[in-house]
Amino acid sequence: MRIDAIHRELSELLFTLYHSNSHGEGKRCFLTRLAGLMTAQRASLIVIPPTTTGNGLIYTSGKDEDTLLAQDIIQSYGQYYTQDPLVNLPLGQPVTIDDIVSREAFSTNEYYRLFLEPIGVHFVVGLDWRTAQGARCSLRLTRRKEQGNFDRQDKGLLTMLLPHLEQSLSLGIRLQLQDCEKHIYSSTVARRAIGIITLNSCRRILKTNSTAERYLAEEGSGMQRLQHRLRLDDVNRDAIFQDYVYEALDAAQQGATAYVNALSLSSTEQRTGYQLVIKPLPVNRDHESEVTPYIAIYIQNPDKDLDISIRTLMKLYQLTPSEASVATLLAAGHTSEEVAGELSVKKNTVRAHIRSIFVKTGVSRQSMLVAQILKSLATT
Question: What burial class does residue 104 get, using C-beta atoms within 10 Å of its C-beta: 0-12 exposed, 13-18 middle, 19+ buried?
Answer without folding.
Answer: exposed
